[in-house]
Amino acid sequence: MRILAIETSCDETAIAIAEFTGPKTSPRISVLSNIVSSQIAVHRKFGGVVPNLARREHEKNLVPILRGALKETKMYKVSGIKYPVLSKRIQNTKYKILDTILAREPELKQQFKKYILSLPKPEIDAVAVTYGPGLAPALWVGVNFARALSVLWNKPLIPVNHMAGHFYSSLLQNEKSGYRIENIRFPALALLVSGGHTEIVEAKQHGAWKIVGATRDDAAGEAFDKVARILGLSYPGGPEISKEALKKGKKIKITLPRPMMNSKDNDFSFSGLKTAVLYLVRDLGRTKTKKLRPHIAKEFQNAVVDVLVKKTIRAAKAFKAKTILLGGGVAANHELRKRLEANLKKELPNTKYLIPNTRMTGDNALMIAIAAHFVGKKKAWNKVHADANVRLAR
Ligand code: KG4
Ligand code: ZN
Fold first, then answer.
1. Is 321 in the pocket of ligand 1 (CB under 6 A)?
2. What confidence tier does 79 reach under pLDDT thresholds 50, 70, 90?
3. pLDDT per residue as tens digits for the range 119-133
4. Structural domain contains residue 394
5. Residues 94 and 207 in one domain
6. Is residue 388's pLDDT more than 50?
7. Are residues 296 and 375 in the same domain?
8. Can you tell me the distance from the alpha carbon of 13 to that of 363, in angstroms, rounded to the nearest whole number?
């Protein structure tokens, strides 16, 4: 099955085209195209993602990215294929539907008419799209674009939960000649850490998810972003803090709290840790904070990593997990990757551990295509809606 996937849940506009062959639960993958366009430069001056700006950027970028993706796959080089000429009546009905679908995205509609309508139908089997969770205005652009493509090309639509994408992102592993998909041994346990979510998810089977732990306040990525701002670092805070933590600087004795590290549940809380940094910085004053910044960044990062690692291993033991997966933007954090791996080797040497390729940690559409392959359900275009607050499971 060849899937064209679209992701616009936050500040990345992404399209991927991937083909899955072989057995459904242990497929081979060939990645025909995987484009991610980041809007970081647009949002940075506001210190975070501005939903309506994100929406406008998606509207502007989707068509050029789709054209780039289709070009990359060289789908149109196949000669001898005849594309059916639509009767005027069918054509008119389709165009009317397209007008309705893209009514709220005038710029996208204009580009769609100019560049996409005339394209021959690509050889794909379905269009997958992230329908939530995420920022509603951003999600809708992707969903409407996917609906329009589904109508134009007569292809089924597969709505995909963004967190399912992060769940499956670590299955894609590098191979000499490209990529391969790893198997999951069930039950599996995933630590999903992004800007909006921090969850421990148990899966007894593909798609049989249960959120067994979650943050009670800020997500881990959100804590990185907020603490970065307190320390005078730019957005997004995660990569800035981990870079800062590697620098040399003055040191003093600082101990930040490790909230809920020893609680018996699988939940997290990061807002107290952020407040502790805020008070520390207030007490130190500007000059001292600047000198101590690498040290504070390192201690903060260690505090977050300590909690995440300890609770993930605890949960893995309790749920007798056979596979542990890591996913989400914060999975790019070097310290987290290193420490989780080292501790798992020591404490659960027989448990399979899958860590995502660093290109797969942030938002991308390839993870959406993979999730669509494993758990996607094909739907008619008018049955797919954005849902900003949808959860992976109850
Ligand atoms: O998954 P993602 O790209 O978007 C959401 O779905 O939220 O995650 C973005 C989050 C941001 O909060 C960002 O600061 C964090 O991931 N992040 C990191 C690192 N790279 C990105 N956090 C810690 N260390 C990193 N290296
Ligand atoms: Zn994400």
1. no
2. very low
3. 888 999 999 999 999
4. no
5. no
6. yes
7. no
8. 9
Residue 109 and residue 25 share a domain: yes
* Nearest protein Cα to ligand 1, atom 1: 329
Task: Return the ligand 1 atom nearest residue 228 CA.
Answer: 14
Q: How much distance in Å is there from the Cα of 213 to the middle of ligand 1?
A: 19
Nearest Cα to Cα of residue 130 among 38, 9, 1, 12: 9
Q: Identify the residue whose C-alpha is closest to ligand 1 atom 3.
A: 362
pLDDT value at residue 394: 59
Q: In the chain, pLDDT over 70 holds for what percent of residues?
A: 97
Residue 18 and residue 148 in one domain: yes
Q: Is the CB of 194 under 6 A from ligand 1?
A: yes
Residue 269 Cα to ligand 2 midpoint, Å, equals 19
- The domain in which residue 114 lies consists of 2-170+361-383
Reply yes or no on whether the pLDDT at 82 is more than 70. Answer: no
Domain CATH number, residue 47: 3.30.420.40
Q: What is the tally of structural domains in the chain?
A: 2
Q: Are 94 and 226 part of one and the same domain?
A: no
Are 127 and 214 contained in the same domain? no
pLDDT (mean) for 303-323: 98
Per-residue pLDDT, 81 = 47
Calculate how far, in angstroms, residue 236's C-alpha sits from the geometric centre of ligand 2.
13
What are 200-231's pLDDT values in tens digits? Answer: 999 999 999 999 999 999 999 999 999 999 99
Cα 304 to ligand 2 centre (Å)? 18
Residues 158 and 246 in one domain: no
CA distance 199 to 214: 4
Judge whether 205 lies within some domain.
yes
My answer on whether 119 and 235 are in the same domain is no
